[in-house]
TrEMBL record:
PANTHER family: DEHYDROGENASE/REDUCTASE SDR FAMILY MEMBER 11 (PTHR43115), DEHYDROGENASE_REDUCTASE SDR FAMILY MEMBER 11 (PTHR43115:SF4). Belongs to the short-chain dehydrogenases/reductases (SDR) family. SUPFAM superfamilies: NAD(P)-binding Rossmann-fold domains. It holds the Pfam family adh_short. This is Uncharacterized protein. GO terms for molecular function: oxidoreductase activity, acting on the CH-OH group of donors, NAD or NADP as acceptor. InterPro entries: NAD(P)-bd_dom_sf, SDR_fam. Keywords: Oxidoreductase. Transmembrane segments: none annotated.
Length: 504
């Protein structure tokens, strides 16, 4: 976070909830924070709650994001006082009860003005300030899981999300539009959408809080995600994070200490993301088992580790497309280590060609590796975690191709079955989340979807076309560590991570 020291961050909706938590955490991270809110007295009260030596770093300004003149005046004051804006957190939001087919049209309009137009208006001001100063700024949009799936509400009752979910779906699309515009306008400005599930704020009614019981996020869980996204290297862009509460609330433990000497299994570990993940997990104290078909590459990786770290890595041959190979490798792990605490499903493959003409055996190989390989390994890891009642974590290495069918080369689609297998992983992640909760386990599931990563899987023509606009495998490994480091009651369900400037 050193590069953000004394930079200017603007937080809308800063009077309570996520906005207040974010303002506090950014002040403690060394930024000058401007808290915008209609209830400016609440921001002033928040300022008094800070340590005396930190209060000067929080400025309160009255602003109603639905009012064009109010927004213009607030941002004019900010630019006059601070010279510009480096970070914008679009947090202001609104939800009211009622049904879209019968409620007052004025209420619908007000929600859209707050949740959509408020974001657009504030972002225009911040973007102008960043671009004019050549600032590598960062803009956040506090979205919602309701921007990815229409939430049904309480079973047996009439839905009440009305226009709230459509407004959040709009933010999901707006995030991608901004990402492409920022690249097209030749800036280095990042955009991140953060989509939490239920958060304990004033927007959540008491009845719903009682129903949710312990299954609710804290505002600081969201502000921690913002700080993580800000801390990534300049070339790494966290495009979207979906954060959900875990099904069971137990004693909060933050950072990696609880994983010391725990057992992590990494598939596809011989190169790329798998190899980078092994190195990172070892440095954080795990006992790591690296699985791959190319056992010679695993042995070479082990020999490259510092001498005192080599004993933390066990290597074993495993072809995840073969049931017998998976069972043999995992039985050896269980016999030697007694169980599995973390599984990184990283093994994957892609074969060039077109779906309508290519060899069926090649298609079957990709399907067996990318989908059935995850199923095989996850079943064994889940059984081990459930039998021992551990707070395990299963991570699926997905792809942006699991959210959008990509054409990496003009007039030459080559994703064939690869993208469908990744779409399957997107759905499977949520299936696993629901199943793990239904089985009353404490096991987490996280899907990580990178854009182009500099690995052996990248086609040479794609590499030539996109040049240096690729992630390093260690960027993805860092995202894995972030997900593992969250409190035990917080589940990072999805991370979409791209190289800054990627136009896929």
């Amino acid at each position: 976070m050193e590069r953000w020291l004394n930079k200017v961050a603007v937080v809308t909706g800063a009077s309570s909830g996520i906005g207040a938590a974010t303002a506090k955490d950014l002040v403690h991270a060394g930024l000058n924070v401007v808290g915008l809110a209609r209830r400016v007295d609440r921001v002033e009260a928040l300022k008094q709650q800070l340590p005396a030596d930190k209060r000067q770093y929080l400025t309160a300004i009255k602003c109603d994001v639905t009012d064009v003149e109010s927004v213009n005046e607030a941002f004019k004051q900010i630019v006059t006082k601070f010279g510009g804006i480096d970070v914008l957190v679009n947090n202001a939001g609104r939800i009211v009860g009622g049904q879209l087919c019968t409620m007052d049209v004025a209420e619908v309009q007000n929600t859209l003005q707050t949740n959509v137009m408020g974001v657009i208006h504030c972002t225009q001001h911040a973007f102008k300030s960043m671009k004019e100063r050549g600032m590598n700024g960062h803009i956040f949009i506090i979205n919602s899981i309701a921007g990815h799936n229409v939430v049904s509400g309480i079973y047996g009752q009439t839905p009440v999300t009305n226009v709230y979910s459509p407004s959040k779906y709009a933010l999901t699309a707006i995030t991608e539009i901004y990402r492409r515009e920022f690249v097209g306008l030749e800036t280095k400005i990042k955009i991140t959408s953060i989509s939490p599930a239920l958060v304990e704020t004033e927007m959540v009614g008491e009845h719903l809080k009682r129903l949710a019981k312990d299954c609710i996020l804290s505002p600081h869980d969201i502000s921690n995600a913002i700080v993580y996204a800000l801390s990534t290297p300049p070339h790494v862009q966290i495009q979207d994070m979906i954060i959900k509460p875990h099904s069971v609330l137990i004693e909060e433990m933050v950072n990696m200490e609880r994983w010391l000497n725990k057992v992590a299994v990494v598939t596809g570990a011989s190169s790329g993301i798998g190899a980078a993940t092994i190195k990172s997990l070892i440095k954080d104290g795990f006992q790591v088992i690296g699985l791959a078909r190319r056992i010679d590459r695993l042995n070479e990786l082990k020999s490259q580790l510092p001498f005192d770290e080599r004993q933390q890595l066990t290597v074993s041959h495993c072809d995840v497309s073969c049931t017998e190979s998976v069972e043999k490798a995992f039985n050896e792990i269980l016999e030697k280590f007694g169980g599995i605490d973390v599984l990184i499903n990283n093994a994957g493959c892609a074969i060039g060609g077109q779906l309508c003409t290519m060899d069926l055996q090649d298609l079957e190989k990709v399907l067996q590796t990318n989908v059935m390989g995850v199923v095989r390994c996850t079943q064994i890891a889940f059984k081990s975690m459930k039998e021992r009642d551990v707070n395990g974590h299963i991570i699926i290495m997905n792809s942006v191709a699991g959210h959008k069918v990509l054409t990496a080369l003009p007039n030459l689609p080559v994703s064939n079955i690869y993208s469908p297998t990744k779409y399957a992983l997107t759905a499977m992640s949520d299936v696993y989340r629901q199943e793990f909760a239904a089985f009353k386990t404490k096991i987490k599931i996280t899907s990580i979807s990178p854009g182009l990563v500099d690995t052996e899987m990248v086609h040479e023509k794609v590499r030539q076309r996109h040049g240096k606009c690729m992630l390093d495998p260690h960027d993805v490994a860092h995202a894995i560590l972030y997900a593992l480091s969250t409190p035990v009651d917080v589940q990072v369900h999805e991370i979409i991570i791209r190289p800054l400037g990627e136009m896929l």
